């Protein structure tokens, strides 16, 4: 039975699992990212009336299952499923968490809508970490990790792309804003997250304006 004490123990175990798996990550999907997403997921869950426990556990685990950080989508899902199977979770909770972490990825904008409020909350928390000041830093970290340049005026942002093109195609850090980050505000699920996303979105727009002015030497 998931008593409050048991739920607290599971949430803390999820935090430890996330840290052990992600603390050496160099892609911008590290343990600190998971920590920010977990904190935001709890905040949004309370505001939106979702189950904070499900949201927090799924938030801690979400990048452990991410296909871009694993050999395959199946191997990432297995890591999370195996861990969940060793926790004193009710079957419904276990399946709910696994569903969230398996379906919340952006996937070039092709993913289906989240089924539950908890899924929408965790997805919003993750997307909020890809909008704003920290998102800017993470973008350049990730671009450097995969070998993309900061900016190339001759390389236009891609308007649409398949998941394979999104994962493997050539791009730049600045193009990533146009290909994904600036699109996230319109894909936010909850009212609480939208209020945060709008402020962070404006910050990114101002940053890109300043970047281009400096690139052209006009300021």
Summarize the structure.
The protein is mainly alpha-helical and 219 residues long. The protein is built from 10 helices and no strands.
SSE layout and pairing:
Elements: H1 4-22, H2 31-48, H3 52-61, H4 73-85, H5 91-103, H6 117-128, H7 133-146, H8 163-168, H9 173-179, H10 191-216
Give structural attributes:
219 residues, mainly alpha, single chain, Hypothetical protein af1432
CATH topology: Hypothetical protein af1432
Number of domains: 1
Compute the gyration radius: what is it?
18 Å
The shape, in one word, is globular
The percentage helix is 55-70%
What is the oligomeric state here? single chain
Mean pLDDT: 91
Largest sheet: none
Order of helices and strands: HHHHHHHHHH
Query: Which class of secondary structure composition applies to the elements?
Result: mainly alpha
Low-confidence stretches: none
Q: Could you tell me the number of beta strands?
A: 0
Account of the protein in words:
With 219 residues, the chain is an all-alpha fold. It has one domain (4-216): Orthogonal Bundle (Hypothetical protein af1432), CATH 1.10.3210. Helices cover 63% and strands 0% of the residues. The radius of gyration is 18 Å and the shape is globular.
């Amino acid at each position: 039975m998931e008593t409050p004490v048991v739920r607290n123990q599971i949430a803390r175990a999820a935090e430890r699992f996330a840290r052990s798996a992600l603390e050496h990550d160099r892609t911008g999907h590290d343990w600190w990212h998971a920590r920010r997403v977990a904190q935001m997921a709890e905040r949004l869950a309370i505001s939106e009336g979702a189950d904070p426990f499900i949201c927090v556990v799924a938030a801690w685990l979400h990048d452990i299952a991410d296909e871009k950080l694993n050999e395959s989508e199946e191997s990432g899902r297995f890591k999370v499923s195996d861990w969940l199977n060793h926790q004193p979770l009710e079957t419904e909770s276990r399946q709910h968490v696994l569903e969230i972490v398996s379906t919340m990825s952006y996937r070039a904008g092709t993913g289906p809508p989240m089924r539950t409020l908890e899924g929408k909350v965790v997805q919003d928390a993750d997307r909020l970490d890809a909008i704003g000041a920290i998102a800017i830093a993470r973008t350049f970290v990730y671009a450097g990790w995969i070998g993309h340049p900061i900016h190339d005026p001759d390389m236009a942002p891609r308007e649409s792309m398949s998941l394979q093109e999104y994962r493997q195609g050539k791009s730049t850090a600045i193009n990533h804003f146009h290909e994904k980050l600036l699109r996230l505000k319109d894909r936010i699920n909850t009212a609480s997250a939208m209020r945060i996303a709008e402020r962070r979105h404006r910050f990114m727009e101002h940053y890109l304006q300043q970047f281009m002015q400096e690139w052209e030497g006009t300021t």
